[in-house]
Design brief:
The complex is a heterodimer of chains A (114) and B (164). Chain A is an alpha+beta fold and 114 residues long. Helix content of chain A is 50%, strand content 16%. Chain A has a single domain (33-113), classed as Beta-Lactamase (2-Layer Sandwich). Chain A has helices at residues 3-22, 64-80, 94-113; strands spanning 32-37, 41-46, 52-57. Chain B has 164 residues and is α+β, with helices and mostly antiparallel strands. Chain B is built from four helices and five strands; from the N terminus they run H-H-E-E-H-E-E-E-H. The radius of gyration of chain B is 17 Å and the shape is globular. The chains are: A alpha+beta (114), B alpha+beta (164). At the A-B interface, helix 1 and strand 1 of A face helix 3 and strand 3 of B. Chain A: Pfam families: Sybindin (PF04099). Chain A: This is Trafficking protein particle complex subunit.
Chain lengths: 114, 164
């Protein structure tokens, strides 16, 4: 998947998130949290400022909300607190990448250990 | 509509008055949509819908559009296949990775597409478990009583008499 594709997918997801709120039968809908496809699950987390994080995983995986919260924490620590980061731009922060890889690795290890 | 009550978890939602059709299903099921492959809404039924942002026709269009985009999104997102095609190209039923449900904090939408392109959508309470069997059951009812009805014109909205 190239950059254009990921941008297209991101904008598609953003609009679908908004449409799903409009179609809600009751008030107070905050958009899609979990999308269950045939081959994967997609968990989405929206921060209060509107930044969306989503993780694609095997169907039926648990504790993805916690992982998303951890990633959000990393984002605030290593991206937003980085003085060289410009808002709304693609993230190119070494520390963020490093810590993200570590968290994902840890998640994978704890999965194998179970 | 007894099959909805069987699959629901023990939720703290207030108990429905037993016996009333709207109370029994209104707790769990919100709306039902059936679309054909051209995007015509064959059937729309609602049990419990306090919030209405659009008129019926716009709502159905929006729902079909959402499903269409979600289908191409999941087909493109699928990590297991390499050959994914382009985003936005209409997919045939069964082509690419599809999805069977999504959940928000206020509702859960279950989706089924038959090989002939009939889309059945059920909007329910978010705590309800897998509804794929129920959707297949609804599809069987559709085949038995709509497709096999000699007076039914394919592609026209389904007229039915509601029996309590």
């Amino acid at each position: 998947m190239d950059t254009n594709d990921s941008l297209r997918l991101a904008s598609l997801w953003h609009s679908m998130h908004a449409i799903s709120q409009q179609l809600s039968p009751v008030v107070g809908c905050n958009g899609v949290e979990l999308l269950q496809a045939d081959n994967f699950d997609l968990h989405c987390f929206q921060s209060l400022t509107g930044t969306k994080f989503f993780v694609v995983c095997e169907p039926g995986m648990l504790h993805m909300e916690a992982l998303l919260k951890v990633i959000y924490e990393l984002y605030t620590d290593y991206v937003l607190k980085n003085p060289f980061y410009e808002m709304e731009m693609p993230i190119r922060c070494e520390l963020f990448d490093l810590n993200l890889t570590q968290v994902i690795q840890k998640d994978r290890v704890s999965l194998l250990g179970r | 509509m007894q099959f909805f009550s069987g699959s629901v978890d023990s939720t703290p939602s207030p108990a429905a008055p037993p016996g009333t059709a709207s109370g029994l299903s209104g707790n769990n099921a919100n709306m039902l949509y059936i679309f054909n492959r051209n995007g015509v809404c064959l059937l729309y039924h609602e049990w419990h819908r306090p919030l209405r942002t659009l008129d019926a026709q716009q709502d159905q269009k929006l729902m079909f559009g959402l499903l269409f985009s979600l289908r191409s999104f999941t087909a493109k997102m699928d990590p297991t296949s390499l050959d994914k095609g382009n985003l936005g190209v209409p997919l045939l039923p069964g082509q690419g990775c599809s999805f069977h449900s999504f959940r928000t904090n206020t509702y859960k939408l279950s989706f089924m597409e038959s090989p002939s392109g009939i889309k059945i959508i059920l909007v329910t309470h978010p705590k309800i478990s897998d509804l794929r069997d129920s959707l297949r059951h609804i599809y069987n009812i559709y085949v038995e009583y709509v497709v096999k009805n000699p007076l039914y014109i394919p592609g026209s909205p389904i007229k039915y008499v509601r029996k309590h």
